[in-house]
Amino acid sequence: MTLIFKMIFLLTLLMQVTAVKAQIKETVIHKGDTITHSIKVKKGIYYFENNDSLTPSLIINGDNITIDFNGAIIKGSKNMKEPDKFSGVGIIIKKGKDIIVKNAIVNGFKVAVMAKN
Q1: How many CB atoms lie within 10 A of CB 75?
Q2: Nearest-CA neighbor of 103 among 13, 37, 26?
Q3: pLDDT of residue 87
Q4: N or C: where does the chain have the smaller number of CB atoms within 10 Å of the terminal CB?
Q5: Where would I find the H helices in the chain?
Q6: Contact at 8 Å (CB) between 78 and 102?
């Protein structure tokens, strides 16, 4: 009877740990954020307007980082009819290795994603 109780307890504990891992917190991003660890971005439309050519909207810096944008849209300009007037950089990867950017839609910038070093 004790062995069965222990097995049921361990199985219940394992299911709770799995459920906690499945509930990844979604992060709301803001213009000028520096991302230094893996995150899942809360799905939505983010407007990061009025960028000059030297200031990126988001900075990624570090090693072994995965950013799941979860289908989020990052817009630099609301005026999609005049792409020659787009400016700035949407996302810049400053330095690091093994960086994954996935499920992102980036538009309205002169450069959507730039990687350095």
Answers
A1: 18
A2: 26
A3: 87
A4: N
A5: 2-22
A6: no
> Are 92 and 56 in contact, with CB atoms under 8 Å apart?
yes
CB 107 within 8 A of CB 75: yes
Q: What span, in angstroms and rounded, lies between the C-alpha atoms of 48 and 101?
A: 18
Beta strand extents in the chain (DSSP E only): 26-27, 34-35, 39-41, 45-47, 56-61, 65-68, 73-75, 89-95, 99-102, 105-107, 111-115
**Tokens (6 digits) for 90:** 């949407």
Q: Are 48 and 90 in contact (CB under 8 A)?
A: yes
Question: If you average pLDDT over every residue of the chain, what do you get?
Answer: 85
The CB density around residue 27, as the number of other CB atoms within 10 Å, is: 15
Q: Is the dihedral of CA 72, 77, 81, 85 positive or negative?
A: negative
Give the mean model confidence (pLDDT) for residues 76-105: 90
Give all strands of the β-sheet with 56-61 in edge-to-edge order.
34-35, 56-61, 89-95, 111-115
